[in-house]
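INTERNAL TRANSFER SHEET
From: sequence group
To: structure group
Subject: N-acetyltransferase domain-containing protein

Please process the attached sequence and return the structure record in the designated field. Keep the field labels unchanged so the import script can parse them.
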Amino acid sequence: MDEVEVRLRSGDRVLIRPIRASDAAELQRAFALMSEASQYQRFMTGTPRLTDSQAAYFTAVDHVDHEACVAHAPDDDSLIIGVARFIRYSSTPDDAELAVTVADSWQGRGLGAALLRVLTARAVEVGVRRFRAEMMADNAAIIGLLRSAGMTDETVSGRLATGHVVLARPD
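Return from structure group:
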C-alpha cells in the first residue's frame, strides 16, 4: 500500500498511508484527544489511555496478517486523524477482524469510508475475503458505514453488534 491523497465527501483532502512503528507516540496522542464516548465505542471498555505496549502492538504490523493505515491532513503528517486496521484470524485466514477509528473533529466528513476503501483494497491484495466487525450496538456511525459497505449477518446481542463485510468471492 502506498500513500494516497483522498478527497472526502466534505471536500477536505487527506493523506492515507500505511502505519509505521514510529507512529506509536502520535497514536497515543490521537487516542488521548478522543472523547470518552469515542474511546469507549472503539475499545468497548473504559480505556483512559493507550499504553506503550498497546501503541507498540498497534504500530508494529506485518502488513499482511495485521495491516493498518492512518490518515492525516496534507499539511501535518504527524497528526493522526483516523486509523483503519485488520487482523487476520489464524484459524480462518480468509477472514480478518476490522476496526476503524476517526478523530472526533473529523467524524461525519467521509473519512471512515475513505479509510475503509483503502484498507479493503489492501486486504484483497493479501487474500482477505471477509471482514468481521464487532461494535457497540449504539455506534450508529460505524454501523452505517459497514451497512453501506454491504454488511451481512448483522446481529445484536445486548450492547454488542457484529456483522461481516464480504470483500471478494472465493475462487
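Handover comment: The mean pLDDT is 89. The domain at 4-133 is CATH 3.40.630.30 (Aminopeptidase).
Transfer complete.
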